[in-house]
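To: structure desk
From: M.T.
Subject: fold request, one chain
Message: Could you run this one when you get a chance? Sequence is below, nothing fancy, just the single chain.
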Amino acid sequence: MILRSISILNFKNIAEAALDFSENVNCFIGDNGMGKTNLLDAIYYLSFCKSHAGLGDAALLRHDADFMLVQGHYSRRGQDEDISIGFKPGGSKRKSVKRGGKEYAKLSQHIGLLPVVMVAPSDWDLIRGTGEERRRFMDQIIAQGDSEYMAHLIKYARAVENRNVMIRRGFRDPLLFETIEHQLDVSATYIHDSRQQWVETFSPIFLEYYRQISNSAETVSLSYRSHLNEKPMRQLLDCNRERDMVLGYTSAGVHRDDVELLHGGYPMRKIGSQGQCKTYTVALRLAQYDFLKRTGGIAPLLLLDDIFDKLDAHRVENIISVVAGNTFGQIFITDTNRTHLDRIIRRVGKDFSTWSVADGKFTLVESSGKEEESL
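Reply: Done. C-alpha cells follow.
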C-alpha cells in the first residue's frame, strides 16, 4: 500500500499543506515542535480516525480555526482509494469519515483498511505504563486483521458497563444477569482466544527483531496474563458475584488482561536500561509491522518518529540496517538532523523525498532530482 499524497487543513499547527510522497522513503527534518510529528499523526489519523497521541478531535483543531480536514490519496491492492476526515465543532454530526466520497455508517468499518504502524517516543508507555496500554497494543494489531474481534471488543465493553450499572443499583435476581453475562462470556472467550493465539504467533517475530537490533544474546519474552487462563468467563462471574457487589464493579475478565514484557525472566520495566527499553519498544513495533504484513497481505505504512533517541551508535546502526532492508514498504521518518536519514537513504538505494519542517510548513529540499518547493 502506498500513500500517494495528503492534503491538510487546520490540523494541529499545520494550517495548510499538500504533499506528494515518494513510494519508498520520506524524510522530515526540523527542530522539535515544528510539525514533523503532527504530519505523521495526520497520516495515522487517516487510518484510525483518531490521534496517535490519544487526543480528542477538538484538541487536534488548529487554534482559532473553525474546521479541520485531512485527505489522503492511496494506492491499495492496485486500486485508488480516497479517504477524507472532516471535523467541525458543534452540531450533532461533528466528524465525517468518507471513503471515495461516501460516508461510513460506522467508524469501525474503516479500521484495518489502511494498516499503519507508528514508532514513537510515547511507546515508552508500553513498558512503564499500565496494562491498559499493552491491551490497547494487542487490540490495535488484532483488530486490523479481524473485524469480528473489534465487534466483540465493543460488545464486551457495553456488557461490562451494563453489568456494573446493575451491580451499583443493587440488583440481585440471577435472571436479570443472565442475558448480560451470556454476552460477556461469548465475547470474552473470543477475545481471550484471539489474544492467546496472537501472543503465540507474534512472540517469535518480536524475538527476531530484538536480536537484530541488540545483536546480543539477551533473553526477552512476552507472557500473556489473563483471568481466563485459569477459569472460563462464566465461572469467573459466578465466583466473583458477591465480591463484585461489594466492590461495585466487575472485577475479573479480559478487561484486566495484560502482556508482561520480560527481560531475562524479569519485568523490563524494573530492570531495563533506557537503551534496552527503547530497543524493546522498537522491536515490538517492527514486529507489529511484520505481523500485519504477513496476516493481512498488505504492506502497512511505517511511521518512524525520532526513533534514534536514547540509543547507542551500535544499536542505531542495527536499526538502520533493519529498516533499510526489503521487509518494509513506504517509510515516513522524522529526525532533528540529516545524518541518520541520509544513511538510511543510501542504504535503501531507492526513490526518496526529504523535507525540512518549520512552523507547520514543509519545504521539499531533495527528492530524486526534483526542484525545491514550499508547501
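Reply (cont.): The longest strand covers residues 2-11. Let me know if you need anything else for the meeting.
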